[in-house]
Design goal:
Helices cover 37% and strands 21% of the residues. By secondary structure, the chain is of the alpha/beta class. The two termini are 32 Å apart.
Length: 246
């Protein structure tokens, strides 16, 4: 991508380095040139595997790289906050709708997880527990997100479009030009209000396919909670939803 930007603007070739060293980690660098950007911004991908720089059109790729390297201490702090590799296991916990459910594995219990007495009861082979837990969470996401979508579409007077679960690592939801709404299935692990805020955001795009004042007014009328609080929760806790499942 950096090479494409160089050709488009006839810039001198940036250094061959397209990676950033952060402590013991060497991370690929993604550069995005945004039409309305006024300054350089830096982010770490939710899974901690990529450094992303957004920049105005007049900034060179070399400056973007220098900017990322100069913020290596900040990146190291973000990496330290990422969840450690700890797939669901008997006696552990799994995030579900904003709370941590203790995992109660019993060999003779049903293979499909069920929530009982504020715990996740699951049986079947112990070695496949992480996979079956993830599959159950996705099923719960499909069910609850479908309910959310129907609710907000009814409020806005629009028929509910097709819902697709997303595994995107850049955004929590999206609304396509054909009306299809995609929501990241990992939001099933967030509090209900946070999950619903993302659905409401995408439903508002069915009426306003932009981020204009009219869109934000629509979203404010549509969502029953605080958009600011939900966004703050995602900013602070969102990376933790990318816990591993085996």
């Amino acid at each position: 991508m950096i090479e494409w930007l160089r050709r488009a603007r006839h810039e001198p070739a940036p250094p061959q380095q397209t990676q950033v060293r952060v402590g013991d980690h060497v991370l690929p660098l993604e550069v995005r040139r945004l039409r309305h950007a006024r300054r350089l911004t830096l982010r770490l991908a939710p899974d901690g595997r990529t450094v992303r720089v957004s920049m105005p059109h007049w900034v060179s790729a070399h400056e973007a790289l220098t900017f990322a390297v100069s913020r290596s201490d900040w990146l190291a702090a973000q990496i330290a906050r990422l969840p450690q590799a700890s797939p669901p296991c008997p006696g552990g916990t799994v995030a579900y709708r904003g709370r941590q459910l203790p995992i109660d594995w019993q060999a003779r219990a049903g293979r499909k997880p069920t929530v009982a007495d504020d715990r996740l009861l699951i049986g079947g082979p112990r070695e496949s527990l992480p996979t079956r837990t993830a599959r159950w969470l996705e099923g719960e996401a499909q069910r609850l997100l479908g309910d959310d979508l129907a609710h907000y579409c009814a409020r806005i007077g629009k028929p509910a479009p097709r819902l697709a679960l997303s595994r995107a690592r850049r955004r929590w939801g999206s609304c396509a030009a054909d009306g299809t709404i995609r929501i990241n299935w990992r939001l099933i692990m967030a509090p209900d209000a946070v999950r619903r805020s993302v659905v409401a955001h995408e439903v508002a795009h069915l009426a306003h396919f932009d981020h204009s004042p009219a869109f934000h007014a629509c979203l404010g009328d549509l969502f029953e909670g605080s958009i600011e609080a939900a966004n703050a929760w995602l900013k602070h806790h969102g990376p933790g939803l990318y816990q591993p499942f085996g």
